[in-house]
Amino acid sequence: MRILIADDDALSRRLLERTLERVGYEVTAVENGRLAVEQLSRPDGPRLALLDWVMPELDGPGVCKAIRQNQERQAYVYMVLLTSKESKEDIVTGLESGADDYLTKPFNADELKARLRTGERILLLEGRLVEAREMMRFKATHDALTSIWNRGVILDLLGRELARSQRETGCTIVLLSDVDHFKSVNDTYGHPVGDEVLQEVARRLLLAIRSYDFVGRYGGEEFLLVLNNCNPESAEVRGEEIRKAVSTRPIQTTAGALQVTLSAGLLLSNDWGIRPVEELLFEVDAALYAAKSAGRDCIRIARPNVPAHNSPVPEGESVHRLR
Amino acid sequence: MEKTKSCSPGTRVDLAELLIRLDDDRELLRDLVTIFRDDFPRLSGALQQAVECQDMKKVSVLSHTLKGMLANLAVSRAASAAAQLEQMALAGAAVPVEEAFRAFALEVDGLLTEMETYVAVVRP
Hints:
The complex is a heterodimer of chains A (about 325) and B (about 120). Chain A is built from eleven helices and twelve strands. Chain A is α/β, with parallel strands linked by helices and about 325 residues long. Chain A has two domains: about 1-140, 3-Layer(aba) Sandwich (Rossmann fold); about 150-300, Alpha-Beta Plaits, CATH 3.30.70. Mean pLDDT of chain A is about 90; it is low at about 310-323. The interface between A and B is medium-sized, with 17 and 22 residues.
């Protein structure tokens, strides 16, 4: 485990360094409080620290305060103050500054090691708690089968991106896609094979979009894609690329290779101006329905009957809805 | 209570205690003495100057550093003298500080030479 030693006395640093290296710590030693804060604030910095009280630039309690102020943004750092100050007032001051423990100089090596082991146990426990919290956070935001965003999150992201497009006068593409004849996959090969198909479709959709686009599972076999900062001129081409990313080659399942296609409704935010998310979802769903009606394995674009308030349609250009 | 019982008469360093503290690591002892040889004259010189200038803040900081260094090397009486000097400096009275410094100077007189001899004695 990595540990930071901060002490302005070179002799004390060397003594601590050797004592801790002998028991397997990977030691970083610095000579003042400012350097200690720098080291401990790094994302990959040590999470265990032995700090002298009296140091140039910033003292030990000052280091503790600085680290605790930023604690929410970084992993917990277990800090032990090591000093020759030993009055009750000093101990209270040290602990109030955010130190976890306190040892007086000259230190007893066995006591020092035992106290550091306590610190390690606390860090281990903290690590497990963070891991559990992250797992719960993932489960709350991702679809259990496909590991892409779940419905709640993709709708939030859609709302956020539409608002951003409005602010920045950009264009967001909303693509609602549906796996064609998915029910027959389930009925013919069983639900486990249907699940394999959905997982692979999700994977292919993820690969087809840019890192800053979003894809989420909207319903059973429906996927909602939110593509940011798009050029409206190439929207249809982008939609086709994504559709073909799924249907170009068969999906390998335990029941064999299955040819799967997608139908999709596509909507460009700048065609619609300021509208509620629910209304846009209704429109893109209608376009998806139109694609299904047109024989599936295709895309239909949702166009408004009246132009959007903020994107006037040039004279002579036709605006129509595909349903 | 001062741990001087294992010091030989006329010596300042409790070598037995120091070797226990270092887990009998002779190489480390040599490292520490080397650091001591480099740092101690500089620190004690700065301390003397601070006492002469009656810079109490500096006296307290330097005597605090020396106290830690000497305690780490099991030089208990000198560490206590440094602690006394630190307290006097924190209290801010010039005359007791000068007296405390003289007591400290007596305790560390010849210490460097003594430390050097231990390095020779404990050579593996």
